[in-house]
Amino acid sequence: MILGSGLGNFAEGMNIARRISYKSIPNFPLSTVKGHKGELLFGTMANKQIVCMQGRFHYYEGYSMQQVTFPVRVMKALGVRVLIVTNASGAVNPEFETGDIMIIKDHINTMPNPLIGPNDERLGVRFPPMSTVYDKQLRDKAKTIARELGITLREGVYIGTTGPSFETPAEYKYFRTIGADTVGMSTVPEVIVASHSGMRVFGMSVISNVFREDNQQDCTHEEVLEGVAKAGNKMSRIVERLIAQTL
Ligand code: HPA
């Protein structure tokens, strides 16, 4: 699992056997963003073995795409088969509201591709397909679980940008026009690498802010963390059950 901005609390539901600070892992970058803790947790949830990144790396922190996605390669080498990624994002779908949660069914990448460079055939193919990245079975299961729990769940397309600036109104409108529902500054690089290495992927976004043409307000990082706090618990409940029932 990779936990996004302000979503570190999810780890409270884990039976933690071991915590390793990123500082003490060779070649691991360090989290520089508020709301990201910087520990790799090992343990179980619903009797399933979990390795969980409490805090992730972003391209805008100045890391290379290889550094941003290095933990995914480490997870693969450890034997991880399913990657669950979470993030905070801004909605460009006007039907969405702050505090909503969305299953990612597809993405649009506007960042440099993390697979640029020589390809190590032992890790994956040179030209990996991206047509079925977000596992349909896991998405369907999550929808059923949300219904059982009475939680409203959205499903849509996430567009990944480098950040760190938030979008101009013209950019938000553009992203909506080209088919996005949410926009954020993470997730896509890790998902591309996970998919390249043959892992199943499940992704969820918490909506921390909504772009509305008729009511434009500046987005701030504090607003993002507040929006996420409203919804983190809903997301944890769904993911916990998903892990218990499916993996
Ligand atoms: N844009 C980009 N990234 C984000 C946003 C946003 O509006 N909200 C949270 N992460």
Question: Could you walk me through the main structural features you see in this protein, from its secondary elements to its overall organization?
Answer:
The protein is an alpha/beta fold. Helix content is 29%, strand content 26%. The protein is built from five helices and nine strands, in the order ββββαββαβαβαβα. The strands form two sheets. It has a five-stranded mixed beta barrel, surrounded by four helices. A four-stranded mixed beta sheet has the order 1-4-3-2. α1 (65-78) packs across α4 (188-196). It is globular. The mean pLDDT is 92. The site of hypoxanthine has 12 residues, from β5, β8 and β9.
